Amino acid sequence: MYAPAFGTLRVYENATALAEAGAEYVCDLAGGRSGRTIIALSGGNTPKPLYERLGAEPIKTRMPWDRIDWVLGDERFVPPSDPASNFGMARAAFLGHVPVPPASVHPVDTDGVTLDEAAIRYEAMLKRLYGADTLEAGRPLLDLTLLGLGEDGHTASLLPGEPVLQERTRWVAPVPRGRVEERITLTYPALNASTVITFLVAGEGKRAILDKILSGDTDFPASHIRPQGEVIWFTDRAAAGRWA
Ligand SMILES: O=C(O)C(O)[C@@H](O)[C@H](O)[C@H](O)COP(=O)(O)O
What we know:
This protein is α/β, with parallel strands linked by helices. It has one domain: Rossmann fold (3-Layer(aba) Sandwich), CATH 3.40.50.1360. It has eight helices and nine strands. It has helices at 15-31, 48-54, 59-62, 86-93, 115-130, 188-192, 207-214, 237-240; strands spanning 8-12, 37-41, 68-72, 74-76, 142-148, 172-175, 183-186, 194-201, 230-236. It has a six-stranded parallel beta sheet. A three-stranded antiparallel beta sheet has the order 4-7-6. Helix 1 (15-31) packs across helix 2. The longest helix is centred in the first third of the chain and has 17 residues, at 15-31. The radius of gyration is 17 Å and the shape is globular. The termini are close together. The relative contact order is 0.20. Bound molecules: 6-phosphogluconic acid (6PG).
């Protein structure tokens, strides 16, 4: 086994085993903390089976639902009822049927606002959760951030070549319509203010990009995720390839 350029690698037999281990990890992390835990969710297909396990026994009863705030790492600029909504997916997978206090769930408000306003409001919400307007070194904003990896090396909605990659001040930025539909995304400063970032990467289609990033290729948005704490790559054998 080689050493990844950053983070530690956990390789599971298949996507199902990855989802089980990932859900256990989330539950243990939240359960092992005494205060509140802020967890950032990713969209995409890979986390869905993990989310479903959070909402099902035996994990459902072990989760300290009243001590967790759920935020989104990125979101499409659509209402939760839209099939493309990341929040809608998380709500259907688990948040809609677990005993989570409504005030602890933080979807992106897209109703009657512009894309930029939605980003500004989401940033204001994060600042309220953080209790300050400026990120302080050594005091993370997010306790656990779940991220995915696109075949082009994007993560959250930090897409290759987009101006959002240069954002160093805002915590949340709009991603105007272009190669994808309108979205908002947490920026590097916000994502990197995490204690733990887990990348969930499954399937053969991700093998080439994962190999490049683990090898230290810095050409991709996901290559620049460097949280205050640690990165853990949760992968299956198909994605891990020679790294397994
Ligand atoms: O909202 C999203 O779509 C994302 O947050 C995005 O960054 C996703 O995690 C990757 O595109 C991987 O998606 P898959 O897990 O579907 O491959």
